[in-house]
Every structure is written in C-alpha cells, then in structure tokens.
Amino acid sequence: MPDIPAIGEFVPGYEGIGWNGLGAPKNTPAEIIDRLNKEINAGLADSKLKARLADLGSVPMPMTPAEFGKYIADDTEKWAKVVKFASIKPE
Length: 91
Hints:
Layout: H1 30-45, H2 47-55, H3 65-85
C-alpha cells in the first residue's frame, strides 16, 4: 500500500514492535534458567542463526533473565497506557 503513510508519519513518537521470547514456569530452578539462558544466547550469537533470523526480518536481542523480565514489564506498562488512553475494552 504505497499511498498509505506509515503510522509513525502521523502519530508523533509512535513505536510498536513485535517480539518473541522464551519463558519457563515460575518455580523453575535458577540453575536451569541460567543454563537455558546461556545456551539460547550462545545460539543467538551464532552467525548462521543470526543470518537466518535477519532473512526473516528479526533481530536477536540476547538478554539475561532479569533484563528480559524488565523488558516484559516495561513493554506491558507502555501498552497499558495506550489501552487506558484509548479507552480500549475487550469485546
């Protein structure tokens, strides 16, 4: 749709991205979380995987579990403000 402007062109400050992440049940032992995080981040650092993800339009964002938790919390807070401001209600 070349004649339709991107939302960022008429809504100042708009930023919306999609992301994916891996999670585990709340009571998963820390050593398992740490091992999974280490192995997943090692995979995300692999040049072949990075290239494949780039081909799919994705950018790896390796993080620690704490950083990922903060990322989720911050994104949830951001979109909660949008929902409240726009008075969005589930149907």
